[in-house]
Amino acid sequence: MTLRPEPPHRHGEDERVGLLLVNLGTPTEPTPAALRRYLAEFLSDPRVVEIPRILWLPILYGIVLSARPAKSAAKYATIWTPEGSPLAVWSDRQAVGLSQALQARGHRVQVRVAMRYGEPSVARGLDALRAEGATRVLVLPLYPQYAGATTGSVADAVMKWTAGARRIPEFRFVNEYHDDAGYVGALAERVRTHWREHGQGEKLLLSFHGVPHRTLLLGDPYCCQCHKTARLLRERLELTPEQVVVTFQSRFGNAKWLEPYTEPTLRQLAADGVRRVDVMCPGFVSDCLETLEEINEEARHTFLACGGERFEYIPCLNDQGAWIEALASIAERHMAGWETRALPDAQETAQRRQRAAALGATI
Ligand SMILES: C=CC1=C(C)c2cc3[nH]c(cc4nc(cc5[nH]c(cc1n2)c(C)c5CCC(=O)O)C(CCC(=O)O)=C4C)c(C)c3C=C
Ligand SMILES: [Fe+2]
Ligand SMILES: [Fe+2]
């Protein structure tokens, strides 16, 4: 194995902290060709589809990648913005906001955004942090609930990068923050703001991305963490258990996934005479295809077509101030003990001069 060369090492250099904010990834454009590239990488991850490769890859490169790219591209086209895919746009804004929030709290931390699939890749993000001198790296996935398919896979990508690194930075991983008070508080604020402007519906439906049911039986904590987030949010909002419904969306394939499923539940609610639902997706911190198209377009249509009268979609946390502050607090907690204090410029220059002098050099 050939190890990658490292940036020049300066004797007496200080420890520098980098933060890698990681999201899922998204196609580069809403076209079948771009979708094919994205889906091929995403769906060949053994943590995402846990079927033996020898059985799965022929299905993936056969049926799935012939039919799905065009269908998915058409869906992405309905949510695309002039700046690109919403998931990428929000992730970038979250990184900028987090960087500013940490700076305002007196930390010197280099923040980079990376995507588990596509670009900017985890490897590119880590290369950039190393080039900027990071000797310690906090990996913060934008997934509040831990799932092997998402959070676990981010760790895989980091480990793959370390395998080629000569000087491996000291890593810390944020595994989950499903019950973090700042995160739940930001969700509650989002709901309350929506209710102030649009009134309150009869039911608050909380829709999380699904995973195969067998992962729950195999010990993945995702399902329990989704339910705990929902309970904490309900308590914050002072709602009764009857006012809140938890569902799972985005089922992929024919296996049983976590239940109840979002769309059938909405049909049932309409059949039961519920006229207005408020729908939120607390497991997604950035609006994306799964919220803007699957929920705000498809699920809305289903509910209204089945007799529902009003469907209120409550947006994700995106770049809301309370959420950015929550992210900063989560990062701070996980960087405890690491030197992140920003030095005033003059002091930093003086320190460098001193070190250089000790080495007999002048700068
Ligand atoms: C929030 C956590 C997510 C989990 C858990 C998750 C699991 C999971 N997803 C698939 C298959 C697909 N997901 C797709 C899109 C997608 N998934 C998440 C998040 C989670 N997925 C997000 C944020 C997005 C949106 C990305 C965007 O660009 O906006 C897609 C692609 C779209 C499509 O063709 O439908 C697929 C496919 C599986 C199999 C899975 C299993 C554990
Ligand atoms: Fe997904
Ligand atoms: Fe979907």
- In the CATH hierarchy, the architecture of the largest domain is 3-Layer(aba) Sandwich
- State the total count of DSSP E strands: 8
Distance between the termini: 38 Å
Percent of residues in beta strands: 5-15%
Rounded average pLDDT: 95
> How would you describe the shape?
globular
Q: How large is the radius of gyration? A: 22 Å
Task: Tell me the number of helical segments per DSSP (H or I, 4 or more residues long).
Answer: 13
- CATH level 1 name of the largest domain: Alpha Beta
InterPro entries: Ferrochelatase, Ferrochelatase_AS, Ferrochelatase_C, Ferrochelatase_N
Main location: cytoplasm
Family: Belongs to the ferrochelatase family.
Pfam family, one: Ferrochelatase
What does this structure look like?
The strands form two sheets. A four-stranded parallel sheet has the order 2-1-3-4, sandwiched between helices. The chain contains 13 helices and eight strands. Helix 5 links the parallel strand 3 and strand 4 (170-173). The protein is an alpha/beta fold and 363 residues long. The two termini are 38 Å apart. The protein has two domains: 17-26 and 85-176 and 321-345, 3-Layer(aba) Sandwich (Rossmann fold); 181-314, 3-Layer(aba) Sandwich (Rossmann fold). One fe (ii) ion is lined by residues 250, 290, 294. Its EC number is 4.98.1.1. Fe(2+) binds at residues 209, 290. Its main location: cytoplasm. Catalyzes the ferrous insertion into protoporphyrin IX.
